[in-house]
Amino acid sequence: MITGLTWLLGCQLVGEVLVRLTDAPVPGPVVGMVVLFVVLQVRRAADDVPVVRVSDALLRHLQLLFVPAGAGVVGYLSVLREDALPVTVALVGSWVLGLAVVGWTVSLLGGRER
Fold first, then answer.
1. CA–CA dist 16, 50 (Å, integer)
2. What is the mean pLDDT of the chain?
3. What does each C-alpha distance from 20 to 8, 24, 28 come to in angstroms?
4. Statement: residue 48 has pLDDT above 70
5. By C-alpha distance, which of 54, 13, 52 is closest to 35?
6. What's the pTM?
7. What is the pLDDT of residues 73-101, one digit of tens each?
8. What Pfam families does the record tag this protein with (predicted)?
């Protein structure tokens, strides 16, 4: 378990360092996930590798990570109520944009298989 957590945190650290060195406009943990993905693809990791087991354990308890976000929403409910229109437009707009990008990507990748 400790080995898997070390891999996850190590990849996140590498991502943070890369972002700081390159001054990239991407969050460090996102770059760390890409680094972890590349490492797992190069090593052709099996399902019983420690990092996979730790990731599965964390995903089983993912709902606990949403508790602080929910508490933040409740704490700032008055601010959200005042700015309801811009927040709603931003949420719906980003959802539509994300849906369009996923649909475009699926159609692009699906076209390659035919």
1. 22
2. 89
3. 19, 7, 8
4. yes
5. 13
6. 0.58
7. 899 998 889 999 999 999 999 999 999 99
8. LrgA
